[in-house]
Amino acid sequence: QVQLVESGGGLVQAGGSLRLSCAASGRTFSTYRMGWFRQAPGKEREFVASIKWSDSITYYANSVKGRFTISRDNAKNTVYLQMNSLKPEDTAVYYCAIAPGTGAYEYWGQGTQVTVSS
Fold first, then answer.
1. What letter would DSSP give residue 114?
2. pLDDT tens for residues 10-46?
3. Given this model, what pLDDT does residue 44 score?
4. Shortest CA distance to 47 belongs to which of 31, 68, 73, 28?
5. Using CA atoms, how far apart are residues 118 and 55, in angstroms rounded to an integer?
6. 99 CB-side CA count, 13 A
7. Residue 89 pLDDT
8. Phi and psi of 75, rounded to 5°?
9. How many other CB atoms are found less than 10 A from the CB of residue 32?
10. Which bin fits 111, alpha (ψ -120 to 50), beta or left (φ > 0)?
11. CA–CA separation, 9 vs 99, rounded Å?
């Protein structure tokens, strides 16, 4: 089993920055990639960014490319999401997740709220 705990959310003005953290524990040796997703009120959950654990190859949604950066710390089993130039439309609950293989994400955190005021 894998446990994920997100932190770092909060309220920020448009144009500001936040850094989210996601600490993984348990059977993390089987991690293939970790990702960040978000869900705004009344909307479906959407992909934000991901990172492969073996070689740090990253992927981003077009809506955050150039503003958000995903990174990892192997020693701490932690993945980060640095969010700059935040916009009100970035307001959502942000979740981290682990995919043990090349398939679906199977383990999810409880989420952390990010609110960007205009």
1. E
2. 999 999 999 999 999 987 767 789 999 999 999 999 9
3. 97
4. 68
5. 37
6. 17
7. 97
8. -65, -30
9. 14
10. left
11. 23
Residue 73 has which token pair?
Answer: 């710390």
pLDDT of residue 115: 98
SS3 at position 75:
helix
Q: Report residue 35 as tokens.
A: 């990702």
Residue listed under structure tokens 């005021």: 117
Sheet holding 2-7, edge to edge: 2-7, 18-26, 78-83, 68-73
Q: What contacts 86, CB < 8 A, 6 or more positions away? A: 12, 14, 15, 16, 17, 18, 67, 114, 116
**41, 57 in Cβ contact below 8 A?**
no
Task: For residue range 69-98, list pLDDT tens digits in order.
Answer: 999 998 898 999 999 999 999 999 999 999
Using CA atoms, how far apart are residues 1 and 5, in angstroms rounded to an integer? 14
DSSP notation for 19-36: EEEEEEEESGGG--EEEE
DSSP state of 43: S
d(CA 118, CA 99): 35
